[in-house]
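ok so dumb question maybe but i'm new to this and my supervisor (M.) told me to 'just get the structure for HAD-IA family hydrolase' and walked off. so i did the thing. is this what she meant?? sequence i used:
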Amino acid sequence: MMSFERIRRVIHDEWVMDEAWLARFRSCLTGIDVVTFDVFDTALTRILDMPVDVFAIAEDALTRKYGIRFSGYAVLREEAEQKAREVARNASRSEVNFSEILSILIAGRPDYGGFVTDIMGAELEAEHATCFAVPEIAAAVRFCREQDIRVVFVSDMYLSADVIRDLLLSAGYDDAQDLLVSSETGYTKADGKQWGVVQEFCGADARILHVGDNEWGDVIMPMQAGIKAFAFPRVRSNVRDGGPLTPAVLPYSFMMRGAVLRGGAGSGGSSAGQIMSMLGASWGALVAGSVVSWLVRRAQELGLKRLYFCARDGWLLWQAWKELDLDRKTGISSVYLYVSRYAVNYGAVTISCRPDHLSDEALALLTYVSHPETVRSMLKRGDLQGLTPLVEDLMTVFGTPDAEVSDGSGAEEFRQCLQRHAGIVYAHLRQSMTNALYYFRQEGLHEGPCGIVDIGWQASVQASIADILREGGYSPMLYGLYAGLRPGAQAKRLRAGWLEGAFGNDYMQAEHLYGLFNAVAILENGFSSSDGVTLGYEWKDGTIKPVLADSLSEGSQHKELIAPFQQAALQAISLIFAGAHPSGLIRDDLTLETGQAAISRLSLSPTSRELAVLGSIRHSPDLAHVHVVTLVPELRPDAVVGSHLDLRRREWPVGSALAALRRCGDPEMQVLLAQDIRRQCAYYDSRSLSQFR
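this is what came out, is it supposed to look like this??
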């Protein structure tokens, strides 16, 4: 069970004081009479990824006490505050208070009427449990006191001054400082009116310096009012308007915030590698850790004695399995299996062919194009470039190996050439299948029940492995254990054998798994090895070895981005399984529910920095890894953003949608684009849809 006190203590103990900021702060005090400090995310900060996660803690407390009645409370609480603020704006008021928010909440849920005291208590208890004093600001306040400089706290907040004062006192600040709160003055820093109140409160001639994290409310607006401002962005919280807001997301929230605060990265100045490391220590650890925990349980329940972790996407899961010494602890041995769609599907498809005739299934695979490809790349992905008669025939038809082939142009001509040379194509691919069979037999896939572990989606590799083993005279017993399965896997069940997904299965509607499917490319890249794709198999020194593609470009990306992510994830997983993680998380907390919540929070509502780093990852979406694109092409400087964005063709739909909206400089075009995005994502939850406006 997570201990809030333990999390605060660990963060405080590992805090690295920003002495440079403190020195600059002290240098700003010459001639200053009063220093005003923002409260939340300046004087105080929370051990949570987002401030609204306080509502998830309250929901957890209320549901534990009163049951399912309070399931979904956190979202209702957030919506109630939004509605209360809308009512206030319509009445030309800048701020609301807690009572007004609760009135809106109860108007929508009358059954909450008898629980007002409990609701208020749960939220205030969550605030006290998660807030702590920021060391730099605590030191700055002490210095001001030593220099006889007056200190005033100023907060834009719906909570009362008494509540905020109690939070400050509990965190270690004394009661000598004054406090101005927007819920009581009726004005906010953000709209600028609070600064007139501050100036009147401090004295007309007072020379004031304000310190806060918000660029608009704490820097720009006070400066416009003639008040000197000094930014403190280090502990600024994330703002994620989309994704889940439930108790299940709290493990991710604590782990992400802990990684950020201990690393001193709140200012946004972290490198891409540091961002990936923080994501690995939180998101990666929760997702991979929950899958590994599930794998142990399901493999034992199914009676499996061997697990085959598939290259390349199963790499991180295999590393976690080894790091945790699960071969010994479970009695289930693990093998890293060099396979790919490229290496097995082309050979397996010959089972449906005759030596002199290629089946429609084979032709469809050999000529499949998701977007225009060259004749050269299509030959390369089937390893057919050495079949001279075929190549010469193709040159007669297309004229050049760089001629483009698309589904509507050239694909039929390519198929006809393949069929004319069916004999040599069949023989070549059949040898590929035979080599694969020898490799699978060498690795023991033909013996007894075997678990196939991979990220998943279509289960085409497992189906091809089973086909090849059966063609070799064996009766495979394969059990596929995947992160998730798409509906397309349904048609492969009879061929592939047992199929099961941790976070989503093929019988579930894709519309219900939009959080997971937005994370497909992130998972594939974050969990993959630095090796190139498996091209096939060859005999060497008496054994059959995998042939791997050159991975120079992928190796560079892996070193800069993926390796920091994986190293941090493995370290955090080890600590969790050992019961030694700073958050207090233990193995039992690594549930599929918490893993799924983590997946959806990041994939459906990334911060701008996360979007920039993850969106820059180079990814190969096609079968043969010929084409390499960034996850979010809209981030490229030359990207053209219009009023329509086909999200079905995007590797990360939400990432592309957010990037496109932020890049769109034409207000009218932006409105049309937002409408187009909402239309395509109409089945998303209301929180996530609210981002597209």
